[in-house]
Structure formats: structure tokens, C-alpha cells
Amino acid sequence: MEKVVVLDSGGQYCHLIARKIRELGVYAEIRPLAARASRLRGYRGVIISGGPSSVFEPGSPQPDPDLFRLSVPILGICYGH
After folding, report:
1. Checking phi first, is residue 62 left (phi over 0); if not, alpha (psi -120 to 50) or beta?
2. Which residues contact 6 (CB under 8 A, 6 or more apart)?
3. Of 21, 59, 67, 72, which alpha carbon lies 20 to 30 A from 6's?
């Protein structure tokens, strides 16, 4: 089964993104932004949602750096970009 994970950065559109992916016939799950990359194996792609924080703020939410070593497509939206 094709499946995608949406990492929630705290924005209001995370569930809307997942719903639109599902409407395209692809299974989508929502996980917190800080989800460990080792738990994200098996997904065909990752979407990092937007959020209310600024990446320039000290202590701002960050994904697991190992996420970028999974060899899957990653789409960052707003804060996730």
C-alpha cells in the first residue's frame, strides 16, 4: 500500500493536507514533527507542514535530522520548507 506521512509543525492546515492526499487515493498519516526517522521507514514520501513558529527562533521545532537520510521525497510547506 502506498502511504505518505504528514509531519505536524503545529499549523492549522496539517489535517487538510492529509485529507487532500487521501482524496487522491493515497493513505496518509499524521505524526508530530519530532517523530524519529527510524519510525518513518516504509512511507513513500514525507510532507512537513507549516506552523506558527519561526525557524530563526532559538529552540524552534525541528525534525529529526535523520529524516533527510531516508531516501524518500520530502515536501516542505511554509515552516516545513
Report:
1. beta
2. 14, 17, 18, 21, 28, 29, 30, 31, 46, 47, 49
3. 59
- 1: cell is 500500500
* pLDDT tens digits for range 43-66: 999 999 988 888 888 988 899 999
Q: Is residue 9 a contact partner of residue 61, using CB atoms and an 8 Å limit?
A: yes
Q: What is the pLDDT of residues 12-44, one digit of tens each?
A: 899 999 999 999 999 999 999 999 999 999 999
Residue 17 in contact with residue 49, Cβ under 8 Å?
Answer: yes
Using an 8 Å Cβ cutoff, are 79 and 57 in contact? no
